[in-house]
């Protein structure tokens, strides 16, 4: 039987409370809870860069606020692979 897992195309940063931010895969799997938006965003950026997907940052109301597209290092960008 063929394995048909859905590959997440984005990592989301969502607020649960003032001091509780969640990093989630698209599709709902939680990757962790963090005490600040900045901490959650840093983790989401690392994960997204590794998986070659974008980061979607939501405000406290759940509305999409910012979209980040992590790139590779400067060498890859220099040679057009970033």
What does this structure look like?
The chain has one domain. The chain contains two helices and five strands. The protein has helices spanning about 35-50, 75-80; strands spanning about 10-15, 20-25, 30-35, 55-60, 65-70. The chain is elongated.
pLDDT under 50 segments (min length 5)? none
| Gyration radius from CA atoms, angstroms | 14 Å
Helicity level, as a percent range? 10-25%
Structural class: alpha+beta
* Structural domains: how many: 1
Distance between the termini: 35 Å
Beta-strand segment tally: 5
Q: Approximately what portion of the residues adopt beta-strand conformation?
A: 35-45%
Instruction: Output the strand order for the largest sheet.
Output: 3-2-1-4-5
Please summarize the sheet with the most strands: 5 strands, mixed
What does the average pLDDT come to? 86
Task: Give the number of helices.
Answer: 2
Overall 3D shape? elongated
The arrangement of helices and strands along the chain is EEEHEEH
Task: Set down the secondary structure blueprint.
Elements: E1 10-17, E2 20-25, E3 30-34, H1 37-51, E4 54-58, E5 64-68, H2 74-78
Parallel strand pairs: 1-4
Antiparallel strand pairs: 1-2, 2-3, 4-5
